[in-house]
Fold these 3 entries.
Entry 1:
Amino acid sequence: MTDILAPSGIRRAAARVHEATPPRRDRAVDALRAFAILGVVLGHWLVTALVADGGTLRAASPLGTMPWLAPVSWVFQTLAVFFMVGGHVATRGLASARARGTTYGAWLRARLVRLFRPVAAVLAVWAVAAAGLLLGGASFVTVHTVVKLALSPLWFLLVFAALTAATPLLARLNPLWPLAVVLHVDLVCFGLGGPPWLGWVNLAAGWLVPYTLGAAWTRGELERPRAGWTLLVGGAVTTAVLVGLAGYPASMVGVPGAAVSNLNPPTLAAVTFGLAQCGLALLLRDRLRGAMARPTAWAAVALVNLSAMTVFLWHQTAMMATTATGLAAGRLPGLHTPPDGLDWVAARLLWLPVFALVLGVCWAAFHGFEAAGGRPGRRRTRVVRVGGLPRPSALRAARRV
């Protein structure tokens, strides 16, 4: 094991993963997906706080008391890029499946199994944890807070699964159509005093925009740099106008207690900001392909892709497990204290490696649920020996969602 973790062992392992990857694979796609997942994880860890108030834990956000930190949400709210990559991979995968003679039903089942198999473990663990907390005397407010945070990633999966199921209908849909829906919904809700429930139409329409951008990518309509620059500049300028003149929140994530959230449901500002992010991602593709030619960088990206669902589903649990365990030592800065100053920010940054370590423990315990969601009907899995230990090949790793 020591040999494996040595720099020379890591380089040898990375070289084997690099060599096992088919030359035709677009590694920029996997890099964008990995960066999007890690952006969401780091964003949640930075802007979500659990404040110990007597015997109760309450959710808070530094964005509420320090609104000048809003640019943090601009960097780490990367869901639009994930949906764009998801739309690209889904439309490309469906076309390949049809070329092989695979039915739509078989293709969809395979993708949904990979999405939802790891969810069963999360639900089971938190059902037991919630019952144990209530029986142990924890307040209902505490239980509601932690369960809501732990299961909040599931909304994303439901929307993503619905769009995946609709891929045959969305493969040729112009992104301007769902963008027009978002525009009109916001106009009615915010400009004409329409019913608040109408905003939830944007839960589908808002994420349809980057998803159908991914389909346009598959069709070859976004290959020229002009497309990326149009999305980046147009999206950024429109977002600035909406925030500066139309009164949309500057934060691209929800802030507890705020009257309007850009993300719950998505607003026009969140969607146009996502367009800017997608434009930047498209412009970076060539540089990412060059960076992924380095075996070590590619092996790291392949590992994140292989573990994407596990990381996404358990990162909030890792943060809350650290917070709950730390209560034994009292109210710790950056972990249990109100997020109301730069001292909290500095302390929270120091906790990030601890969250990552606990997430690694969760990965070791529950990654098997994700790894077991392979393609039905595959009789053999190519294996690459890494430092004497069997590891799935880069091809299998990159195909995970």
Note: DSSP finds 19 helices and four strands in the chain.
Entry 2:
Amino acid sequence: MENILIVDDEKNYPTIIGEILWEEGYTSMTASSGMEALDILNNESIDLVLTDVKMPGMSGIQLLEKIKEITPDTPVIIMTAYGSVEKAVEAMHKGAYTFILKPFENQALIAHIAKAISVYRIVQENSLLKDAIRSRYSFDNIIGKSKPMQEIYELIKKVAPSNASVLIEGESGTGKELVAKSIHYNSPRKSKPLISVNCAAFAETLLESELFGHEKGAFTGAVAMKKGRFEISDKGTLFLDEIGELPISLQVKLLRVLQEKTIERVGGTMPIPIDFRLIAATNKNLEDQVKKGYFREDLYYRLNVVKAVIPPLRERSEDIVLLINHFIDKYTQGRHATGTATRINLDAIKILCDYQWKGNVRELENVIERCVILSSSDMITPSDLPLQVRQDMSFMLDLEGIPEGVGLVETLAAVEKRMIQRAMKRAGNVQTIAAQLLGIGKSGLNQKLKKFNLDK
């Protein structure tokens, strides 16, 4: 129930308005002066202020100015007599939502209040949504404690406050878009739009129109003017995903946009100034693409002011357990169905740690979501994992690759040492956990660490 503050020095007026508001489902508080109103605003939750203009001491206009300093989003409706319309117009210029002339019809007042509160709620929800987005894409929400990920965190922290172009390279599913969003929402442009375009999702002609926009009649079907992603991202950030798929003809045009800071819509002749920060991502090695002639060298250097290379999940296996727990938490929030898995046993973790994850973090997330939904108990076990994960044989030795003349003893010793090193790395050098991952006792692991001179 919305709470409305009525400010008027007339004794009976606030009481009458309060009764009208009560009948419409609102609660109300009253103040006979601007100072009393400010005291209430500092101590109570107020959704709207309804104030008279002419009051002794602090006028309604002065009260409005103070309210906008304290709570800028709180709507203020000014009540004024016919002879004070000029004051009401002044109030509108200073941020009042609207004004209403005394005496007024009850329904007119209620209509103004209902509309003002509706707008106020939208502003509040938008603010909460922005806060949630910033929180979601904060550095803390990029999961990983491995050295490669720590380097990514440091890079984001340094580059986010700048306007530098950033090129993000990494395999599909590694989280390139998450890094791009983290950069944007921790930059000075965070209150402006982040516009994303997947360059691989459009045919060349459609992609040009999508990026640059078009004028009415520019081509068949262009029945109205349309702004492109460059214009929409003005003052914000443009994220071009799969930039390696951008056709050569559009690479030339993108280079010109970055140099001139202007665009022309398809079918247009007037240059339009724009100001955006560019973040590009690709699952290809653009340097190799340049050498092969598939990507312009001059554009590559324009994009590659700062490069972030996101490592594949198989190269940061110590992050897998962190990610597993993160995704379990994510997909169990708000779920109360019987049998929904909320944890995972060690045998399942071992299988997931040994899997190669060609689809990277995205594939791991999909597997965990599936397990949470389909598990028959609150514990994810190996039987809950997809068949391809359980039967993955990529961990098997490449026997054909072992040189001739190498004996069985030294080969087995090399494999044993490698597995111990991997287990210790995944366990963060905690021997108890490493022993569990290897399926041996802690004392046995301790002996092997000494055997291979790994105990130090």
Note: The chain has four domains: 3-132, 138-311, 314-390, 399-451.
Entry 3:
Amino acid sequence: MAAQTGPMADVRDMYMVHGMFRREFGLLPELVRGVAEGDKERAKVVGAHTDLLCRILHAHHGGEDALLWPRLQERGGQEALGLVAAMEGQHQAIEETLERVTGLLPEWWATARNGAELAEVFDGLLLLLTEHMAVEERDVLPLAEKHITAAEWKGLGDHGRDVFAKKEFPLCFGLMMYEGDPEVVKSVLEDAPLPVRVLVPRIAPRVFASHSKRVHGTATPPRATTRT
């Protein structure tokens, strides 16, 4: 088990991503329940938001499956073996739930009918996701700081970007910036071209605020840290 050289992973950005997941997936069941039966215009707004969140989650976990778990299993010794297996099992359960969403969402998005089942699926997804993120923060991130290089960690963020349209990136980043530590935001962007480093911190919060007004009715939805 060779020791890794060079700067090691700065995992603070994972807390920023998790904060976004806790907030947005926490709000999602009631968003769906709040769409009146047959209100197709509102279903389009919430449906598009739902689709984006699910794609972000799928890409995020895909990066961990492809790039993080194999390295931790190779380098983390006995400490990592059972943990990686547990993480993979949790990912599988979450992915199966996302597949249920995929089966239900298109019809609800188009008709705004029979949303109760979709909302219940999101209730279940939230429970799975909350448990998974807690274990990841407690057990996985300390291992990543010891065994994953900074360059490898950055690759996690780059994985799966091809599932998003270029115009979606400001919103994706704005979703994470809303509760993100400014220092972490700066760190995430430090290797980006200068125009990106300058413009994204200005544009992304505005795009998020506009999106949030449409979806949540406010530019400042309840934060993950304040929701009960």
Note: The helical segments are 12-33, 40-75, 78-111, 115-147, 150-158, 169-177, 182-188, 194-216.
